[in-house]
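Entry type: protein chain
Record version: 2
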Amino acid sequence: MKPDKLTDTYWDERKEAMAKKYLTSKMIGRSIAYEGSPEPLVELMKRAKKGEKLTLCFLGGSITQGSLSSTPKTCYAYLVYSWFVKRFPKAKFTYVNAGIGGTSSQFGITRLTENVTPYKPDFCMVEFSVNDPANPLFRESYEGLIRRLRKFPKQPALLIMNNLFYDTGINSQAEHDEIGEAYDITCISVRDAVRPEIESGKIKREELSPDGLHPNDAGHAVLAGLVADYLEKLCAEYVEGRKKPEAPIVTIKPVTVDAMEKLKRTQYRSKAVECKGFKPDYSKKADLHDLFKHGWKAFKKGDSITFTFTGSELAIQYRKTIHRPTPVAEAVIDGDKAHPIILDGNFDQDWGDHLCIDTLMYHGERVTPDEINAGRVQFAKPTKKEAEAEARLASVAEKQPERKKHTVTIRIIETHKDDKVPFYLVSFITA
């Protein structure tokens, strides 16, 4: 991925007016779910005022990537970057959009070294609140992500953004804000700002989000407006004014067991993998959105791949494709053939191929994808099965993980005469 070094600004009068059309002082006031120490952001802006070279990074899912914005330059991330460009004309900014649709903080940790670290960001906004299920596993992966960012040699100033499903208000804000507060990072809540206006009828959901999740240009302008207002306030008080910011709280002991902080991906070049029919994919990646590369392909029934690792966490990344039919595989952990996990490459949606991540081991305990997904936030009363899954995850979350040697074998169990594409295994995620 090459960072965008353009210096033009799209945070102009038209975009500012679009944001102000919807934003009120009450909405802006509600948007700060937790106000952390301003010092890192203030220091960033002081450096910008001096005319330094600074890199601004935006890490998240499809909203950060810019889904449903009319152009890449009308998504909230680019608009926030444009605010910096306009506000500090002497500085030289580099823009890095590390948003990938449909991805969570669990995957986000593993791609820091490829998509974020090389650019040595001075600022990073993190947005995963609609992709992370609100359960203990993703609370832990989110903390692992924040801890990894805080341990960069050049610690970036951080901001947390909480987006939402506009029709219901569902997100994982409670879990993410808990982590933000522990690490004294400001959390901006789009839900708290916008949802009451939609419920009262003052704003129609369709005005900001055609599909109830991804913002249109007006919605992205609102997101950027909330961030810009907060930054402008800090600038007036601490950069232009004489107020001195308090130093941030330094959190050493993690909130969770913190088994996710060292998550890593294993792909095609690993010597810990034994292929019997699966073929490594050596084709070159075009950019960070070229997701189905550097993994393994399999066509025939009985093709298998075995991976050996030492740890307590395991997830499988594979492709669910709209090009149906495609082969179906099963994953067997430590030879337990009585309890396989089915990896069905056939995607039942039509919006495009999906990078699926199925978590199979949490703190050394076997888990199923259904158990992980049952922990999503919901307003309806959970079913008995969902309640049991939530209780089990909560129990496992408190367990100190024991690192052991494990094997996982993935085998093709079903093929079709008219298979359109092979089964594609992207990576093993472990810690």
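Comment: Residues 264-364+399-430 form a domain with the Jelly Rolls fold (CATH 2.60.120.260).
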